[in-house]
Automatic annotation (TrEMBL):
<dbReference type="Pfam" id="PF02801">
    <property type="entry name" value="Ketoacyl-synt_C"/>
</dbReference>
<dbReference type="InterPro" id="IPR014030">
    <property type="entry name" value="Ketoacyl_synth_N"/>
</dbReference>
<protein>
    <submittedName>
        <fullName>Beta-ketoacyl-ACP synthase</fullName>
        <ecNumber>2.3.1.179</ecNumber>
    </submittedName>
</protein>
<dbReference type="InterPro" id="IPR018201">
    <property type="entry name" value="Ketoacyl_synth_AS"/>
</dbReference>
<dbReference type="GO" id="GO:0006633">
    <property type="term" value="P:fatty acid biosynthetic process"/>
</dbReference>
<dbReference type="GO" id="GO:0005829">
    <property type="term" value="C:cytosol"/>
</dbReference>
<comment type="similarity">
    <text>Belongs to the thiolase-like superfamily. Beta-ketoacyl-ACP synthases family.</text>
</comment>
<dbReference type="GO" id="GO:0004315">
    <property type="term" value="F:3-oxoacyl-[acyl-carrier-protein] synthase activity"/>
</dbReference>
<dbReference type="InterPro" id="IPR000794">
    <property type="entry name" value="Beta-ketoacyl_synthase"/>
</dbReference>
<comment type="pathway">
    <text>Lipid metabolism; fatty acid biosynthesis.</text>
</comment>
<keyword id="KW-0012">Acyltransferase</keyword>
<keyword id="KW-0808">Transferase</keyword>
<dbReference type="InterPro" id="IPR020841">
    <property type="entry name" value="PKS_Beta-ketoAc_synthase_dom"/>
</dbReference>
<dbReference type="InterPro" id="IPR016039">
    <property type="entry name" value="Thiolase-like"/>
</dbReference>
<dbReference type="InterPro" id="IPR014031">
    <property type="entry name" value="Ketoacyl_synth_C"/>
</dbReference>
<dbReference type="Pfam" id="PF00109">
    <property type="entry name" value="ketoacyl-synt"/>
</dbReference>
<feature type="domain" description="Ketosynthase family 3 (KS3)">
    <location>
        <begin position="10"/>
        <end position="419"/>
    </location>
</feature>
Length: 422
């Protein structure tokens, strides 16, 4: 009988559907074609005035209909498009009939919306005045539209998910954490399937200003497609971006029983907190190291069985240095020869969606036998000795991938994916 449980006796978790939307396009085929061609989706910001901003570039998805309707509407559209593609590929028809886990930004009303609502009302002063307008504007409850969890509620209704939809926000690790929660639900036997989504349409002027105040963003505006340069000596910050990705997770037994195509296996998840600083990583990299090792242990694989690392690779001076330290500690001398590339060099940093987007690309890497490149690697950092697959994609047989997500607030989540059951 075919193996259906892992090394710890838990149900093996398969991926039967993948969906992706980024600044490179809508659907995984368009994204994959652009990604493997080394094409950048980073461009000048046109959605709002940037005259007085230090950073004037982004990986926004301006081609979507909701891109001018606010972060909540755009996050929903990104999630809905990705989920629809993933469920369509999985072959599941009708209601999804499984739990939904959404990684989403903590969306809030823009200041423009707040001022507009305040100015349109003749009601009582202050909060009561704002509240009255919010409940009347366009016949909708504006406050409800930006409440944390509202997007997941709409998605659950749209796809027929069961149970209470879970919304989580663990900074840049959110997308990977959503996948982890889906994996754990299946392993516990709570469901045969789960829908894990990461989506982020929050590249607003407020977000741009806040990240600029943290000195986290690149200010290399003149040639936008060259600004994100992970692991390069002249890297100066990440590029804010938007995107979404979804995975249909299913027990291998369930997938085989209904004749579904198995696209890959979610073999391991590792998570560790870093309490050193709100935005900086612990200097010795120990939390990131522990997260990588935890993912490997959970998968039952050793470090020498990993064929490729999809790096967090944000292009910030500190993150890339810390990620090199963590990987060199785990992989030892082999770290110089294992391919380690960053999709963020082309799509920018999709924040809450990043872990899910990069998990989707990791699965595509195994399916297609092609490793996406790290572009803009024109000035290698001698302190970071890695094979970053510079400039051009590489044909390779990849059977196991480690995908890293290291976020602000000490959120570290790593995933191990394999082509076949371990």
């Amino acid at each position: 009988m075919a193996k259906l449980t892992d090394h710890l006796g838990r149900p093996i978790v398969a991926v039967t559907g993948i969906g992706v939307v980024t600044s490179l396009g809508v659907d995984k085929r368009d994204n994959w074609g652009a990604l493997t061609a080394g094409r950048s989706g980073i461009h000048p910001i046109t959605r709002f005035p940037v005259d007085h901003l230090n950073t004037r570039i982004s990986g926004m998805v301006d081609f979507l209909s909701s891109s001018s309707q606010g972060a909540s509407a755009l996050t929903y559209e990104l999630a809905e498009l990705a989920a629809a593609e993933a469920i369509g590929q999985s072959g599941i028809s009708g209601d999804f009939r499984g739990p939904l886990f959404l990684a989403s930004p903590p969306v809030e009303l823009s200041w423009q919306s707040r001022f507009a609502m305040y100015g349109q009302s003749d009601e009582a002063e202050g909060y009561a005045r704002l509240l009255a307008v919010a409940h009347k504007q366009n016949g909708t409850d504006v406050f409800s539209s930006v409440m944390f969890g509202a997007v997941a509620d709409r998605l659950a209704d749209r796809f027929g998910a069961v149970g209470l939809p879970i919304t989580l926000s663990t900074a840049c690790a959110s997308g990977a954490t959503a996948i982890q929660l889906g994996v754990e639900a299946i392993r516990r036997g709570e469901s045969d399937r789960a829908l894990a989504i990461g989506a982020d349409g929050s590249a607003t002027s407020e977000a741009l200003i806040r990240f600029s105040l943290l000195s986290a963003l690149s200010t290399q505006n003149d040639v936008p497609e060259k600004a994100s340069k992970p692991f390069s000596k002249d890297r100066d910050g990440f590029v804010l971006a938007e995107g979404g990705a979804a995975l249909v997770l299913e027990s291998l037994e369930s997938a085989r029983a209904r004749g579904a195509t198995v696209l890959g296996i979610l073999a391991g998840c590792g998570e560790r907190a870093d309490d050193f600083h709100r935005t900086r990583s612990k200097p010795d990299g120990s939390p990131a190291i522990a997260a990588v090792r935890a993912a490997l242990a959970d998968s039952g694989l050793s470090d020498d069985q990993i064929d490729y690392v999809n790096a967090h690779g944000t292009s910030t001076p500190e993150n890339d240095k810390m990620e090199h330290l963590s990987l060199s500690t785990v992989f030892g001398e082999r770290v110089r020869s294992i391919p380690i590339s960053s999709n963020k060099s082309m799509i920018g940093h999709t924040l809450s969606a990043a872990g899910a987007v990069e998990a989707a690309f990791s699965l595509m890497t195994m399916l297609e036998g092609v490793i996406p490149p790290t572009i803009n690697y024109d000035h290698p950092d001698p302190a970071i000795d890695l094979d970053v697959v510079p400039h051009r994609s590489r044909t390779a047989e990849v059977s196991a991938v480690l995908s890293n997500s290291f976020g602000f607030g000490g959120q570290n989540t790593c995933l191990v994916m394999t082509r076949e059951p371990v």
